[in-house]
Amino acid sequence: MALYVHKYGGTSVGDISRIKNVAERIHKARQRGDDVVVVVSAMSGETNKLVALAQAVQERPNPREMDVLLSTGEQVTIALLAMALQERGCPAVSYTGWQVRILSDASHTKARIEDIDTDEIIADLACGKVVVVAGFQGVTEDGDITTLGRGGSDTTAVALAAVLKADECLIYTDVDGVYTTDPRVEPRARKLDRITFEEMLEMASLGSKVLQIRSVEFAGKYNVPLRVVSSFVEGSGTLISYEEVGVEKALISGIAFNRDEAKLTVQGVPDRPGIASKILGPIADANIEIDMIVQNVAEDQTTDFTFTVNRGDYKKAMEILENTTKELGAKHVKGDDKIVKVSIVGVGMRSHAGIASKMFDALAREGVNIRMISTSEIKISVVVDEKYLELAVRTLHEAFGLEQSE
Ligand code: ADP
Ligand code: ASP
Ligand code: MG
């Protein structure tokens, strides 16, 4: 008998009729003879509401208590889904993360799964039950509730599929697969039948929130067959796999973007060894992640140093930088939190020259000014002004011939 892990995101369980629709889908899978473990998210909007409630009480909510709060969203949906399944005559049982014992480290609000106890799940499956597990949550060795970072239910599903050695992990969502870019920004985006783990990981890291980054990392590491499908329409979705065969021989597979960026520049920094670490050290010590870094060629023994951070960390990074700059004797600090990052991704880039110039030409033709550039083997990212995001994505989508054939 085949074992599947299904994951249903917030929109797919957004109201009672949708929860019933999910129950119907699972019931059908059971009737086909499949064993099913289901992971669900909170109903759409619920996690955001909980975050807002916490912030209304504490400016920087206590991380332990935040996790106690955030984990409640998923607890509602597991119970409702188990009830909807039972109503259909389909035996089902729900478990929170700590009931399963999804053991995680103690880094609250962004915990990592370390181990999963599968005994009870296996026993329930053997009794013919559907097991419904709360996504996005775990428990520490000491019994504290943790959450796995936004979008974390994807990771719960993949981790369960890995430990249970499921035949496939199906991520049911509100789109019918992974597209060449977010269809909300470019309606002409094309659904991909397959994408490699490597490319999907790059797309997710560069801002495509269709899958949480860690879920793709996990699936790649444990070779979990992963498929993104719609919970509303039938279809085979997008398979994320190792093989590059069958991946259309495109130079570029997709375009990712991240609206959540901000950049900071220190001007007139003395050009001597150790400066980069003096500037970035205190930022890293404050647990702020740094993304792109650019240092200009020095003129008159001074240089400019620019880096990007998550927009949410902008103010804090600026405060830290202003202090460091005084100590370093740099001239001026400036920043911009109205910038975005747009990236093209594709394994085809490895064997082809001229992709970067094609990208820059296309953007120049539309008058999109590039503020920063960074490249790796299979991606090129540019930082542009926020107002150009849609234009840049659509321009590149067309320049690389990614649209659907009509
Ligand atoms: P869920 O609530 O099911 O977890 P998400 O909102 O996390 O759903 O992810 C699905 C959304 O991801 C889609 O509605 C779409 O707007 C967005 N998205 C971003 N990039 C892509 C892409 N390349 N392909 C498909 N969807 C994408
Ligand atoms: N409910 C959580 C969130 O909104 C986890 C998830 O949906 O994957 O981020
Ligand atoms: Mg999601």
Automatic annotation (TrEMBL):
Reaction catalysed by this enzyme: L-aspartate + ATP = 4-phospho-L-aspartate + ADP
Xref: Pfam families: AA_kinase, ACT, ACT_9
GO cellular component, one term: cytosol
Gene Ontology MF: a single term: ATP binding
Gene Ontology biological process terms, A to Z: homoserine biosynthetic process; lysine biosynthetic process via diaminopimelate; threonine biosynthetic process
This protein's pathway: Amino-acid biosynthesis; L-threonine biosynthesis; L-threonine from L-aspartate: step 1/5; Amino-acid biosynthesis; L-lysine biosynthesis via DAP pathway; (S)-tetrahydrodipicolinate from L-aspartate: step 1/4; Amino-acid biosynthesis; L-methionine biosynthesis via de novo pathway; L-homoserine from L-aspartate: step 1/3
Binding site for ATP: 7-10, 173-174, 179, 184, 209-210
Occurrences of domain ACT (ranges): 264-338, 344-406
EC nos: 2.7.2.4
Keywords: Amino-acid biosynthesis, ATP-binding, Kinase, Lysine biosynthesis, Nucleotide-binding, Transferase
Gene3D superfamilies reported for this sequence: Acetylglutamate kinase-like (3.40.1160.10), VC0802-like (3.30.2130.10)
PROSITE patterns in the cross-refs: ACT, ASPARTOKINASE
Binding locations of substrate: 47, 74
Family of this protein: Belongs to the aspartokinase family.
NCBIfam families: asp_kin_monofn, asp_kinases, PRK06635.1-2, PRK06635.1-4
Protein name: Aspartokinase
Organism: Candidatus Methylumidiphilus alinenensis
Taxonomic lineage: Bacteria, Pseudomonadati, Pseudomonadota, Gammaproteobacteria, Methylococcales
